Amino acid sequence: MNWIVLVISGFLETVWAASLSASRGFSRPVPSVVFAGSLALSMIGLAYALRTIPVGTGYAVWVGIGAVGTALYGIAAAGEPATVARITCLVLIVAGVAGLKVFS
């Protein structure tokens, strides 16, 4: 159960990062509220998961999911380039996160 909560919290990290960008420095109310809510839920989920998952592993998995999700959001929705180098680096992050799960 804690791993599921950790993964959901990682996806919520992507939501708050995208909302932070969309808030334009907190000048837009709806994205600002989405940012605050998803940030709080993401942190609560991370804290819950870290009750049984080692902090180094849990934090790295949470950040990895958020980083890859945010980068993919940037490519899909924000017009950022999808170069071979970028995709390769994202695959390496995913491999590292999967490795942490397998070897924990």
What does this entry look like structurally?
The chain crosses the membrane at residues 33-50, 59-78, 84-103. It comes from Prauserella shujinwangii. It is a single chain. By secondary structure, this protein is mostly helical. The protein has one domain (2-102). It is built from four helices and no strands. The protein has helices spanning 2-22, 29-49, 55-77, 84-102. The protein starts with a helix and ends with a helix.
List the defining traits of the structure above:
single chain, 104 residues, mainly alpha, 4 helices, 0% strand
Give the beta-strand count. 0
Report the principal-axis shape: flat
By oligomeric state, this entry counts as single chain
Q: What pattern of helices and strands is seen along the backbone?
A: HHHH
Based on secondary structure, the structural category is mainly alpha
* Major sheet: none
Q: What percent of residues are in strands?
A: under 5%
With helices defined by DSSP (H or I, 4 residues minimum), what is the helix count?
A: 4
How would you summarize this macromolecular structure in one to three sentences?
The protein is mainly α and 104 residues long.
